[in-house]
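Lab notebook page, bench 4
Experiment: in silico fold of construct C2
Operator: M.H.
Input chain length: 176 residues
Purpose: comparison with the prior construct
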Amino acid sequence: MKHLYLIGGTMGVGKTTAGKCLKAMLERSVFLDGDWCWDMNPFLVTPETKKMVLENICFLLQNFLSCPALDHVIFCWVLHQQEILEEILSRLDCRQVCVHCVSLVCTPEALRKRLEGDIRQGIRDPGVLTRSMERLPLYETLDTVKIQVSGLTPKETAERILEEAKNPEQRNRTTI
């Protein structure tokens, strides 16, 4: 059986790094970051670009799921609304796929520390701090497994995702 890991979380929580660690831990795996599907200049959020991004994401995910050489498809994106998760899943053929929906969460203090480090390094713009903090509470309402990552390394986060994947009936709870 194939596995699809949908990893959501606010900006700076560690989705990309944990997803790459997860890919390294799993044989026959592929990693897709949703941000890659609309890395454009200027960055525009319009109805047309939102539609295009969802089409890009779903096209790639379905191709990965259809590829016999792959057993694990790992996708990360902000995924802060249940409707986004449902829209993506509605476009995919998941009949022979075990889907793992995970939200990475952390304390506001841990998020601030992570983002301020990125801002100092020039990796992120200063406005991300406010936007990311505003999204943080949204993850508590999602039908996903919540993984508290405040004190975890990316490798430890990936290990927790794998632990949760072995117990899919334990949805919508926070692990410490």
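Observations: Strands lie at 2-8, 29-33, 72-77, 97-105, 145-148, 174-175. The chain has six helices and six strands.
Next step: discuss at group meeting.
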